[in-house]
Structure formats: structure tokens, C-alpha cells
Design brief:
The chain is of the alpha/beta class and 371 residues long. The chain is built from 12 helices and 14 strands. The model has no long low-confidence stretch (mean pLDDT 97).
């Protein structure tokens, strides 16, 4: 054990390599807060979180002004205690996205440090349930993409060995969504999984109508059909739909997941390690889902989630959306459409520090040290 002696904060803003649109927004920017924690022995852990274009400065401010000063002098191995204490300090702003994203940047750094001190990769230290995970791709399924291009991408990823593709839905009419999905299904056949994501766009009646159509097309899951705070709507839809309901990327605490699971409001849990507040609460959600025989397919953050889904037994697939290519020196290990977790100690993310330094947003960098 060693006490935390220094914490460094910075933020980079990453531009997605392709245009990303869904039924409610465009993903034009990825503000990425990065936290580096150093202990008294000189060991370091690096953690991060993200936004999709707004709120990053607020996350950095919460880290700088409230959370990070309370880390100095703490025992770095006491991750559960630190997470709980920081959550209590921010109880007036929790549960919510800004607080969870800030907590996640710290918590992932502490887990990185723990794994490095133990000389173990995250996927083993957090559970070591499986050595690899099948991938499905979202990167070719954005809402603005024309049907012919959707078909071309789905065929391409199927040929690469991916388990499936996800297509965004939420066109003005049900018929438009059906035509797009039917064309892809006809091209890839019945044995290739197709998922859809509405990004919380529908009212209940429209979600129910679309769910009936999706069942006819052979869709594997219907993701975020309605606003995430409509628990009763998701419960009613899950009971009526022949297509499993997936949810979780817009839930920000284990308690919110517990509400969904108790109500039977989803069949696939898409817990996001950044939005739920870090690895510590992510594992709680994953094990809660396991106890209820529910699969976990996390949202986004494939470079970090690859280790977490290999740590647990009830993971099903990993979402392919490249996130960190411009600030890392190594890519996700993919073989015939299957992702393999890093074997290096820690999170296993190969940070490109010259690139990170060059892309650090002015005014976001600060260092906090033991006096």
C-alpha cells in the first residue's frame, strides 16, 4: 500500500473519425478528461472518461476544485472507500452525468494503479472470466447513412467475423426504418445478428409499434427506445415486445440499474463504465445482472470495456466504435471479429503522451501534490 502523492488532470478533445448521427443528436466531439495518479512509491495509474461534445469543462472543474484535492494523502488501494467518500462529498450533485464522469476518471486511474502494482491485467484482477469477447459494429450504422451503405458495411463486418451490426433507427416513419433494416437483413441472412438503437427518441406508442416491426425483421435487441427515466414505459414495453429491450448507457448509478432489473424493464444491460462512475460501480452492476441471469453488453468505450467484459461471466458482445486511436500507440486486438483484452498490467491502454500533450485543451491542465 502507498499513499497518493500527486494527481494530474488534463482534457483532450477528440474528433470522431466518421460522422456519427442518431435520432436525437450528432456526435461531433469527444471531450476526454484524463487523470494521472502517482503514489508514494512512484507508481502511476491513468484513468479517463468522456462526453459527446458538451460538459467537459464542468467535469474538469469538479475534479480540480472538489474531488482531486481530497485524494492527496489517501491510501491508493482503498478504492471502495475513496469512491464512497467522493460520492458523499458530491451528494448534492449526484446522481448525474457530470459527477459520474468525474468519479469515473478517478476510479479508472485507481484501478489502473492497483493492477500495475499487482502486475496483472485488469481483466484478470477484476475476475478473469474469459479470454476474449465477440464484437458487433455500430460504426457503419449511423442514422444519416444511406441504405446501400448500411448493407455494404454489414456485409463487410460479417466477412471479418463480427457477430453482428447495429443500425440507428428513428426515421420520420416506421416504413423508412423497416425498409433500411429489411435491406440489411436480406443481404446478411438470418444467422447474422442485427441490433437497433433509438437513442431515447420515441414515446411509448411509437416504441410499441416499432417493436412489432422489429420482431418481424428478426432484430436481436431494441436499444433505448424511450427516455431512460421512463422506467414504467420500459417495463410495459419489455412485457409487450417480442424483441429484447436493451438499456443502460443513460443510467448513472447502480441503484438506477437495480430499479430496471427489479421491474423487468430490460433484457440486456448496457452499463457504461464512464457514465456509471467507474470500474467500482460497473462491476457491481455487472454482478447484479449476473445474479438475475441478465447479459451485459456495455455501451461505447471498447478500449476499456474489453477488459471488463472479459472479467465477468455474463458478458455477451462488445460494441465496436474506435475512440482513442489518435492518442494511443496500439489498437484493440481483434482476430476474426473477436476482441482480446490487453495482457499488459493495468488497463492495458497504450497512451501516446506526446499526442496527448499536443492535444491538451488550454486551461484544462493542473497538478495537485502533497505539501
Amino acid at each position: 500500500m502507498a499513499r497518493i502523492t500527486q494527481v494530474e488532470i488534463r482534457m483532450v478533445d477528440l474528433i470522431p473519425p466518421v460522422k456519427r448521427t442518431d435520432a436525437i443528436q450528432s456526435f461531433v466531439s469527444q471531450e476526454t478528461p484524463i487523470v494521472t495518479i502517482t503514489d508514494a512509491d512512484g507508481a502511476q495509474g491513468v484513468g479517463y472518461s468522456y462526453t459527446i461534445g458538451t460538459g467537459g469543462p464542468a467535469v474538469v472543474s469538479l475534479l480540480r476544485e472538489t474531488l482531486v484535492p481530497r485524494l492527496i494523502g489517501r491510501e491508493a488501494e482503498e478504492i471502495e472507500s475513496i469512491w464512497r467518500d467522493l460520492l458523499f462529498v458530491t451528494h448534492a450533485t449526484a446522481v448525474g452525468a457530470i459527477t459520474s464522469l468525474a468519479l469515473a476518471a478517478i476510479d479508472t486511474a485507481l484501478w489502473d494503479l492497483r493492477c500495475k502494482r499487482a502486475n496483472l491485467p485488469l481483466w484478470r484482477l477484476a475476475g478473469g472470466a474469459k479470454p476474449a469477447i465477440p464484437l458487433y459494429s455500430t460504426e457503419g450504422g449511423w442514422l444519416h447513412i444511406e441504405t446501400a451503405a448500411l448493407v455494404e458495411d454489414a456485409i463487410a463486418v460479417k466477412e471479418q467475423g463480427f457477430a453482428g451490426s447495429k443500425v440507428k433507427v428513428g426515421k420520420p416513419s416506421l416504413a423508412q426504418d423497416r425498409a433500411r433494416l429489411s435491406a440489411v437483413r436480406a443481404a446478411v441472412g438470418e444467422d447474422f445478428r442485427l441490433m437497433v438503437d433509438a437513442n431515447q427518441a420515441f414515446h411509448f406508442h411509437e416504441a410499441l409499434l416499432r417493436a412489432h416491426m422489429l420482431a418481424d425483421v428478426g432484430i436481436t435487441w431494441f436499444e433505448e427506445p424511450m427516455p431512460a427515466d421512463d422506467l414504467s414505459g420500459h417495463t410495459r414495453l419489455a412485457a409487450a415486445s417480442r424483441v429484447p429491450i436493451a438499456a443502460g448507457e443513460s443510467l448513472y448509478s447502480p441503484g438506477q440499474f437495480a430499479d430496471y432489473l427489479r421491474a423487468g424493464a430490460c433484457s440486456i444491460v448496457q452499463v457504461d463504465v464512464a457514465r456509471v462512475g467507474g470500474i467500482t460501480p460497473w462491476l457491481k452492476v455487472a454482478h447484479m445482472a449476473e445474479a438475475m441471469n441478465i447479459a451485459v453488453c456495455p455501451h461505447f468505450l471498447m478500449e476499456l470495456h474489453v477488459s471488463l467484459v472479459c472479467a465477468i461471466p455474463n458478458s455477451w458482445m462488445l460494441e465496436y466504435i474506435p475512440q482513442l486511436d489518435t492518442i494511443t500507440t496500439a489498437r484493440l486486438d481483434i482476430r476474426q471479429g473477436v476482441a482480446h483484452p490487453p495482457q499488459a498490467a493495468g488497463l492495458g491502454i497504450a497512451w501516446d503522451w506526446p499526442a496527448i500533450t499536443a492535444q491538451t485543451i488550454a486551461g484544462s491542465h493542473s497538478t495537485h501534490s502533497m505539501k
